[in-house]
Design brief:
The chain has 16 helices and no strands. The chain is mostly helical and 410 residues long.
């Protein structure tokens, strides 16, 4: 006779279901696809279409703002199981099509419109995908499930730029962008598989399309959002890290410096993928609080090393890799926390709110850090960001919250 303890261990061992695996595959293929286009877009915009760096910055700024806005809007829409499946599927298809369509653009404004459309679709699909994953995974395996999703996303950010480099050398700029449609559609197919796995009996009752703030507060989401906000204010755009590395290696020549910086970025993403997966296993044992705090502390160390990297180039390498570990741990913990403390009918809204906070925090942190980088020093910029991360780690204790399933989310 099998004991309840052994039965539970057997169930936990089966965490990698077809639905969970499909979500991870969707994140991998989608990120690889749009990273191909993102890697090529600066050269395409400036050398082919005659745009400027300022235009590129404007397009990226508007697109990122749209992503955050659409996460907040898409969250309540994803509370309904039937609607979330359609949003996730449609979002991945639109992202793939709009991203590949960059390659057909003949004017800068067309790239701007297509980028905005692709990033808006990314925003609206994210809460739906995460809520879908929450419905597919068992509560005791949320860490592994969301760790796999984050690992897929970060691994795509390694493969995408490498593919872009090969495709540009082999086919040229426009064909390289068109090729982004292939992994994008593979992502759409994977999410369709996940949506079918999540399909269950329907009650015929449609959940309201509104942000239930009172319900979210009652569920206990309020307090954990403080360390998340503090973390995101220190979570600088990776472009600042790449700029720092490029500046440090300029004595080797600009081309070599840029190449080394890109390799460091790829290493950052590879570490993020590995640590997200391992961190998910750890999270299922100890809860999200320790995992999140460890991610924030990793960033404190990373920014300290990058701030003083002029002493030795090894500081920059270690800093990039530690930052990758930090994002892998923290993002996995944030997603697993929302899945643990919120019931299914509120998860879409919860993921949407967290997505909005991430967008606002990233903009605030990166804008101030960028100004400090330009007007004071790189060390000041990364010290500023490290202070936010330290505050986040110190407040991570409020990640303890009551779970609807009766478990302690840690």
């Amino acid at each position: 006779m099998t004991s309840p303890h052994n039965a539970r261990k057997d169930e936990d061992a089966k965490w990698l279901t077809p639905g969970v695996a499909s979500i991870g595959a969707a994140s991998f293929f989608s990120d690889a696809g749009h990273e191909i286009a993102t890697s090529v877009m600066p050269a395409f915009l400036t050398s082919v279409l005659g745009g400027s760096a300022a235009t590129l910055g404007l397009i990226e700024g508007i697109s990122d703002a749209l992503t955050g806005t659409m996460k907040v809007i898409g969250g309540p829409l994803a509370n309904d199981p039937a609607r979330r499946r359609k949003l996730a599927t449609g979002g991945y298809i639109v992202t793939a099509a709009a991203t590949a369509a960059f390659g057909f653009a003949t004017a800068v404004w067309q790239v701007g419109v297509l980028r905005a459309l692709a990033w808006a679709a990314r925003g609206v699909r994210s809460p739906a995908r995460d809520a879908l994953l929450g419905s597919l995974a068992r509560p005791n395996t949320f860490g592994r499930a969301f760790g796999l999703e984050r690992a897929g996303d970060n691994l795509g950010a390694v493969v995408g730029p490498l593919l872009a480099a090969v495709l540009v050398a082999w086919l040229g700029l426009r064909p390289a962008i068109w090729f982004a449609f292939v992994p994008g559609m593979l992502a759409a197919i994977a999410i369709i598989v996940a949506a079918r796995e999540a399909r269950g009996p329907t009650t015929g009752v449609r959940r309201p399309m509104r942000l239930d703030v009172r319900g979210l507060r009652r569920a206990g989401i309020g307090r954990p959002l403080l360390p998340v906000l503090l973390f995101e204010c220190g979570n600088l755009a990776t472009t600042l890290l790449i700029l720092r590395a490029t500046d440090l290696f300029t004595t080797l020549g600009f081309a070599n410096a840029a190449s080394l910086a890109i390799l460091l970025y790829a290493g950052h993403n590879a570490v993020a993928a590995l640590i997200a997966l391992l961190g998910g296993f750890w999270l299922d044992r100890v809860g999200p609080r320790r995992v999140f705090a460890s991610g924030a502390i990793a960033y404190v160390l990373a920014y300290g090393l990058i701030a003083h990297a002029s002493i030795h180039w090894g500081f920059a390498v270690a800093g990039f890799l530690l930052a990758g570990a930090g994002i892998g741990l923290a993002e996995t913990a944030e997603s697993a926390l929302i899945a643990r403390i919120l019931p299914d009918e509120l998860r879409g809204s919860g993921f949407g709110v967290v997505g909005g906070i991430q967008a606002v925090g990233n903009i605030v942190g990166t804008v101030v850090a960028g100004a400090l980088y330009a007007t004071v020093s790189p060390a000041a910029a990364f010290t500023y960001a490290g202070a936010w991360m330290l505050l986040s780690a110190c407040t991570a204790g409020v990640f303890r919250a009551r779970a609807p399933s009766g478990q302690n989310p840690g």
